[in-house]
Amino acid sequence: MLEVTSLGEVLWDIIGQEKHLGGAPFNFAAHCQQLGAHSLVISRIGEDELGVAILAQAERLHMDAHLIQRDPTHPTGQVLVRLQADGQPEYDIRAEVAYDYLMATPEAITRASQSDIICFGTLAQRHPDSRRAIAELIHAATDALIVCDLNLRPPHFSEQIVRDSMARCDVLKLNDTELRTVQVMMGWSGSSGDACMLQLLDTFDLELLCVTLGARGCILRTRAQRVAAPGYRCQVADTVGAGDAFAAALVVRYASGCSLEETADFANLVGAYVATQRGAIPPITPDRLMAFAAETVRAPSSV
């Protein structure tokens, strides 16, 4: 069984009158757990009602929460999510919260060193304390596949954070908008998207690059292979958590030795399924995925 460790934020997504447990690292870990891995998240919550509720929800999801730290000073993270007409979310991310003060405890370092997969993003690196902790934990994971899901949330990142994150990972996932942001950062704005992918692979010595294209699917790129996989048509309920589910499916299949074609198709399927459900962590089972696949079709290939 794959041992997956996710680093960073765990928080509450507030969507209208609804409250959903979330944060990309937590969502990713929860989806990996549903897809057959043993996963946990190294994060930090406040000693408040929202923190207690997170632990209760983690237990309900059968998540290992013993490395979620308690902060006596700072509150549990919250994000106000406003859904646009097309289902795409806008985020109001609260600052100075517990996960900004994540610590690389001895227990966390031990776990990182024993992991098969480490996943991290940029949001939890916005504060110097948590940035140092994440760097230390990645450094301890000498035998792990290091995955960075950029998840750029303006204004909660800097060029240095993005460059450092890409330099630390083996697998980089970003969406097409983020790819254009990175192109500008790197001074490659005159390059085509595919040329930029190759430049990223070479510049940061990446093993695999994944660019998601929303409903159009995704592109997986290594130095030797390019796989363009069309997405699945679906009726979107909301897209919160869909990218994290895609990332979990991608990483679990890739780390299990599946082909890039199979990996990309399965990730598209899981991401699309989650987009048809409310909230970031709906139940994912083989039966649900089979039923969804049977009633939907792939979008026309345009990638």
Structure summary:
The protein is of the alpha/beta class. The protein has 10 helices and 13 strands. It has one domain: UDP-N-acetylmuramoyl-L-alanine:D-glutamate ligase (3-Layer(aba) Sandwich).
What attributes characterize this protein structure?
alpha/beta; 10 helices; UDP-N-acetylmuramoyl-L-alanine:D-glutamate ligase; nine-stranded mixed sheet; 13 strands; four-stranded mixed sheet; about 300 residues
What is the strand and helix layout of this fold?
Blueprint: E1 3-7, E2 11-15, E3 18-22, H1 24-34, E4 38-46, H2 49-60, E5 68-71, E6 77-83, E7 89-93, H3 106-113, E8 117-120, H4 128-140, E9 145-149, H5 159-168, E10 171-175, H6 176-186, H7 193-203, E11 208-212, E12 218-221, E13 226-229, H8 242-255, H9 260-275, H10 286-295
Parallel strand pairs: 1-4, 1-8, 2-6, 4-5, 8-9, 9-10, 10-11
Antiparallel strand pairs: 2-3, 6-7, 11-12, 12-13
Helix pairs in contact: 1-8, 3-4, 8-9
